[in-house]
Amino acid sequence: MKILGITQRVQIASPHNERRDCLDQRWWRVSRALGFTPLPLPNVPNVKLPSFFKSIKFSAIIFSGGNTLGFLNKNSPDNAFERDTFELNLIEWALDLNIPILGVCRGMQIINHYYGGSLKAVNKHVSEQHAITFCGDLSGELNREVNSYHNWGISSDNLGENLEALAVADDETVELFQHTSKRVAGMMWHPERESKLNQFDSRIMKKFLL
Predict the structure, then answer these.
(1) Active site residue: 113, 125, 150, 190, which one?
(2) 31, 65, 134, 167: least surrounded by Cβ within 10 Å?
(3) What gap in Å lies between CA 130 and CA 122, rounded to an integer?
């Protein structure tokens, strides 16, 4: 059994004074289509990950979307500082074990931040469809449209250390990147939000996760 760890967004349930970890149910469908059994990961920032996960053998990890990164806007109502800390620790742990990592939307943003890159506010990237152009190692892919649900993007000159662009939008923000030597990648669109996992996203995700 191939286990795919998937990080979760934090939602605040005010009437109950609860901070809840949650995950789009469509990730189950995507995980199974890729040949994985999904395992949602709790946002626990103050645990030692080697002992916390000692009985679990992960085949890959997806850093999912949701929640603004705390350093971008400390007053954002959807901040989740516990998630920021947990995911940065998780990246470090996964790299030590050479576990493949794929960041989706926010997940791509935090990977870029981990490697010293920066983000900028973008327009017309929320609830939009827009074209992307593949480049670098994927320059042979046919250009196509993808969905978009983010307020923060990455310019090609603001990529983190050893990250290289594989697809860009018309405004030249990076929509897909990979690390030059490690099993790390990020995509800005949401494959799980399509009616079904399309063949293009499936092929790209398998390239990085398998």
Answers:
(1) 190
(2) 134
(3) 13
113 is catalytic: no
Active-site annotation holds for 192: yes
The tens digit of pLDDT for each residue in 12-31 reads 888 888 999 999 999 999 99
The one catalytic residue in 105, 113, 125, 179 is 105
Nearest one of 173, 157, 19, 41 to 99, comparing CA atoms: 41
Q: Among candidates 29, 87, 31, which has minimal Cα distance to 60? A: 31
DSSP per-residue letters across the chain: --EEEEE-EEEEEGGGTEEEEE--THHHHHHHHHT-EEEEE---TTS-HHHHTTT--EEEEEE---S--TTT-TT-TT--HHHHHHHHHHHHHHHHTT--EEEETHHHHHHHHHTT---EE-SS-EEEEEEEEE-GGGTTSPPEEEEEE-SEE-BGGGPPTTEEEEEEETT-BEEEEEESSSSEEEESS-GGGSSS--HHHHHHHHHHH-
194 as an active site residue: the answer is no
